[in-house]
Amino acid sequence: MEEFSLNSTVLRDIFHHAKPLGHHQEASKLNLGFGFIYYGVVRALRPKHTLVIGSGYGFSVVCLGLGIRDNGFGSLTFVDPSYSLLKDGPLKTVGGRGNWNDSESVQSHFQRFNVDQIVTHYRMCSDEFFQAYGKLRLPEIDVAFIDGAHDFKHVKHDFLEVLKQSRPNTYIFLHDSNIYIREMIRHAGVKRWLKMLQKNDKAFQVIDFPFSSGVALVRILEPTVWKELQQ
Ligand SMILES: C[S@@+](CC[C@H](N)C(=O)[O-])C[C@H]1O[C@@H](n2cnc3c(N)ncnc32)[C@H](O)[C@@H]1O
User: Fold this and answer.
1) Backbone angles phi, psi at 130, to 5 degrees
2) Best substitution site from 34, 38, 93 to test ligand 1's pocket, by max atoms within 8 Å of Cβ?
3) Are strands 171-175 and 215-220 parallel, antiparallel or unpaired?
4) Is the pTM of this model over 0.85?
5) What residue ranges define each of the domains in the chain, with the CATH number in brackets?
6) Is 56 in the pocket of ligand 1 (CB under 6 A)?
7) Which atom of ligand 1 is nearest to the CA of 126?
8) What local confidence, expressed as pLDDT, does residue 139 receive?
């Protein structure tokens, strides 16, 4: 019988090295919070191609990557320009730690979890990445996790670009659906964007988990609506 990933040692390593930020986790109980949902969705849906936009220490990448590893197939594309809150300031990132500057340390970070063969990192902003999507010859997206720049304009941009590469039954996570104050002062726009998606129930099914920083999961019914939403 195959050994699966989520034993206590791996859970401890995740807390230590892939540090969750706002995923309803509880370190003392080795409870990954939403991390179990990320892992579980990947196990249940068996995606061929998963995309992650933005991550501080790689928590989402590792949880999704371990699911892919345990499935025995699939790849994960990770896009992050490696902004750091200290160096680049709060308009570029909140929670960015500049961890993705050097390709060798990115590789060894993911090697610790045995997902380095699954994960390919692109050190670029999401707009650059999507402009290059065709050239990179990447396949359609089955599961996406959006956690890059959090202002409304960027959230909308990232969602629509993912949608263009989606098909019916692609699932898209949006992290930080419950950051009330940043949303109020318009520093974040995840909740606002979700409200717009919820109005279109022919194209989207939305479920929100408003605990800790919150995460929402959107099921795509009709990907071609990106044309209308882009206007
Ligand atoms: C740590 S995550 C999100 C943190 C936290 N969830 C929050 O409340 O902002 C932020 C990451 O997104 C990345 N990021 C920022 N802008 C981006 C963009 N335009 N495209 C891709 N990634 C971006 C940063 O480099 C950083 O590592």
Assistant:
1) -70, -30
2) 93
3) antiparallel
4) yes
5) 8-229 (3.40.50.150)
6) yes
7) 20
8) 97
